[in-house]
Amino acid sequence: MSLTYPPPVRLAVTAIAQDDAAFSRPSHRHEDAQLIYARSGIVTVSTDTGHWIVPPNRAVWVPAMVEHATRSHGPVEFRTLFIRPEAIETLPSICGVVEVSPLLRELILRMIDLQGRDLNATSFAQRVCELLLDELAFLPTEPLNLPMPNSQRLSALCLSLEDEPNATLSIDEAAGQTGMSRRSFMRHFEKETGMTYGRWRQQLRMLKALPALAAGQPIVTIALDCGYQSASAFSAAFKRSLGRLPSEYFRNQTQ
In this structure, which topology does domain 149-242 adopt according to CATH? Predict the structure, then answer.
């Protein structure tokens, strides 16, 4: 007796796996939305409006047709889901980083496993897609992005600070570099980034620290490189920003 299978359906989600010693892709965009999941290593996704850092067991959401560049910080294993626009009406319309729950992680890996199989469009695969989208819709956003200003003067300032996160540049000095008064600088900076200058500097330092932490560098070295005078001061700021001590951040991450 011959077996019969359910008729094929067009899946809302497709998946790819990529493992590289280093990865960099220039600015591009897709008709489908993306979920970029770092299984190991760290990935940065950059758009005109900011940078998103993707450490292990996190993922960045990139809506359809959003232009973005992607690069890794050293060796990386990442998994990308491409999601058809008609399947994501209730999902975010802006980029963001989310924590990957154990269930979502297993669903992502199962989608990778299903790719290329004869049964990849059966009702089973469809149910995996539906459950994956349901799980994605309820994940919390993590503070792992660095918004960038639009104006040329503020953008140039922020790019220079990215290159030197340990630089000591007061508000008055930053205002002077942009040719603004202190009051005007503070107003424009917060309007364009959604953060105060001090909060933005701290966020920059936290995100710069993540690749070094993932690489196993000593915390005292990372602290000094990020402009802190001691490991304890850095650790306290890190916990306030990301909810965990730097020594705990990559601990017990199920791969």
Answer: Arc Repressor Mutant, subunit A (1.10.10)
Helix axes 152-163, 182-193, angle to 10 degrees: 80
**pLDDT (tens digit per residue) in 83-108:** 988 877 777 788 888 878 899 999 99
Q: Which CATH superfamily is domain 13-142 in?
A: Regulatory protein AraC (2.60.120.280)
Based on the number of CB atoms within 10 Å of its own CB, is 84 exposed (0-12), middle (13-18) or buried (19 or more)? middle
| Cα–Cα distance for residue pair 125/122, rounded to 1 Å | 5
CA 44, 45, 46, 52 dihedral sign is negative
CA distances from 42 to 52, 144, 241 (A): 11, 12, 18
Which tokens go with 194? 């959604």
Q: Could you give the angle at the alpha carbon of 253 between the alpha carbons of 251 and 255, nearest 5°?
A: 145
